[in-house]
Amino acid sequence: MSSQILVLHFGAHKTATSVIQRYLRDNPELMEENKIAFLLRSESDGLIGWGGNVLDAGIARLRAKIDDAFDSGAAYFILSHENTLGRPFKRDVNGLYPNREGPLKKLAEAFSIYPKRVIYYIRSQEEFLESYYLQKIHEGGTQTFKQWSRQINVESLSWRPVIESLQRAFGSNEVVVKDFAVEMANGQQEYLKRAFATFHQNLEPSRFSDFEYSPLHNISIGTKGLEIALAINRFAQTPEERTKVRHFIQRNFSNLQYPRPTLLSEEEKGRIKEFYAEENSALTHEG
User: Fold this and answer.
1) Secondary structure (DSSP) of 207-267
2) Quick check: 15 and 121 in contact, CB under 8 A?
3) 5-124+157-214+277-286: what fold?
4) Partner of 230 at 20 to 30 A CA spacing, among 7, 124, 259, 283?
């Protein structure tokens, strides 16, 4: 067991978690060759859920999948699931991921027997706010950014309490914190290479392919797409209808065809960025 590593990648949201998850999914032979087992995103949803809401029923099956993989010779088991800590914002509650403690405690207890490495990406708060809002619109949201953001205290968005919760649950030596902007600065290929190198120091990128991976994931919404979504999302009543609307906008009105929406002014972005810059830098260097 000592040479086998459980890698827990918990997000955060909007830090290209789906790129990693789909690279795992789309390269099963490559993973098997390198003794990497993993859980599909759909499986994680069914065993953990949002904020661990199905974890009580799923924990035994989750443990069994990990044990089976290690018994079959896997050297690494990668569990990548950004919904584990719940949603980042909760009405009338300050702070990011306010429901994180429950699922982290349960998983820490369940995974106590495994050597592990916990990976968490953070994103500058002004970028996180804008990106997560646009994701809410993709999911069928109907509020304007001004309506949505007035519920959020921008001075209570420190990542430190989230990181400290991870460290309390799993041990500070096990938690690695990465700056999403730095990791993605040179594109998706380099992001993947750096991610797999981070999963464990003995897992070298050279053991993989060149990480050429053409699919673009989580294409964002363009200016006109946001206007259209706000106009029609309230009419999409079912998950199927919301999916059709999302796909239509992604195909025709994404940020690949139109400019990215301006949600915060440059002054607002600068103020929020400056407020958290020193702490964010310290967190990633501490990690």
Assistant:
1) GS---------S--B-HHHHHHHHHHGGG--SHHHHHHHHHHHHHHSBTTTSPPP--S-HH
2) yes
3) Rossmann fold (3.40.50)
4) 124
Four-CA torsion 287, 127, 80, 5, nearest 10 degrees: -10
pTM: 0.93
Tens digits of per-residue pLDDT, 248-286? Answer: 998 999 988 999 999 999 999 999 999 999 999 999 987
Ordered by start, the domain boundaries in the chain are: 5-124+157-214+277-286
pLDDT tens per residue, range 202-236: 676 666 666 777 765 557 899 999 999 999 999 99
H helix runs in the chain, sequence order: 17-26, 28-33, 41-47, 55-71, 101-110, 125-138, 145-149, 160-170, 180-184, 188-199, 223-232, 239-252, 266-286
